Amino acid sequence: MIGQAAADSCCGALASAPLDDERAAELAKVFKALGDPVRLRLLSMIASREGGEVCVCEMTPAFDLSQPTISHHLKLLRQAGLIDCERRGTWVYYWVLPGVLDRLAEFLTTPQSARVSG
């Protein structure tokens, strides 16, 4: 998971130091979750939503998939530490965990000095 504990143990960007086994396994789970087009679209829908959260009932119609399949994809995003949710009556509302996307962006960013000029 890329939660606060992972952020605290993070040693910086990909180009700053080689990953240890534990950190590589954590990040692999995140990137595996993001490696599916449906999950990537779901995360984008949640992250781009004004107000920061979205009901599953609003996401399901955007896909030609059953509601249980959408719920399964959302569960995998939750297990990867990217989103969280709360049940309110019949519906479940989802939001991106604070700082998660920023930490992923920082990890993927290479320092200016590491870039090769072309």
Automatic annotation (TrEMBL):
SUPFAM superfamilies: Winged helix' DNA-binding domain. It comes from the Bacteria. Pfam families: HTH_5. Residues 19-115 form the HTH arsR-type domain. One of its GO terms (molecular function) is DNA-binding transcription factor activity. InterPro entries: ArsR-like_HTH (IPR011991), HTH_ArsR_DNA-bd_dom (IPR001845), HTH_MetalResp_TranReg (IPR051081), WH-like_DNA-bd_sf (IPR036388), WH_DNA-bd_sf (IPR036390). Gene3D superfamilies: Winged helix-like DNA-binding domain superfamily/Winged helix DNA-binding domain. Keywords: DNA-binding, Transcription, Transcription regulation. NCBIfam families: HTH_metalloreg. PANTHER family: ARSENICAL RESISTANCE OPERON REPRESSOR (PTHR33154:SF18), TRANSCRIPTIONAL REGULATOR, ARSR FAMILY (PTHR33154). This is ArsR family transcriptional regulator. The lineage of its organism: Bacteria, Bacillati, Actinomycetota, Actinomycetes, Kitasatosporales.
